[in-house]
Amino acid sequence: MGWEYPATFIDDDSKWTGEANAYDEDTDTHAYNRYNETQHWLQLLFTPEMVGLAKSVSQIKIHCKENMGSSTGPELRIEIFDDDESEWVLVFEGTIPDETWTTKDIPSGPLNITGARVYQVSKNGMYTQVYLNEFMFNVVPAFKPAWAGRSNNLLGVA
Description:
This protein is an all-beta fold and 158 residues long. The protein has a single domain, classed as Jelly Rolls (Sandwich), CATH 2.60.120.260. It is 0% helix and 43% strand. Strand 7 and strand 8 form a beta hairpin. The N and C termini lie far apart (40 Å).
């Protein structure tokens, strides 16, 4: 358990380039979006199959930069796919500091997820180019309640 990189990606509308660079263990390489493109998701997954192969994740970690000389960093929206509920869940929306590893907790605590997705949010009505250098998941032991595996027969009724 610990920090793990995604294993694959989905870029449904082909608006990103170098997608696998977002998990190649090298902050000097990057996936990047096209200038002036809005809300085009880059999905980063544990496996090519979206459902059924989830891992328990407590945090995500991202290293990126805005390619416009900004001193603040890119505005991003990051969601994870909650495998138990079969829905995307917001982890963070806001500014990620340039060229700095930034960790974000899963707001509800660890979830069984199959991956994450990222897109750039408009900054003052403008879109710049985002360099997504690296993305990681903090995989933790799956939570198992103390009663798991026991009989549901609490009243002693057969």
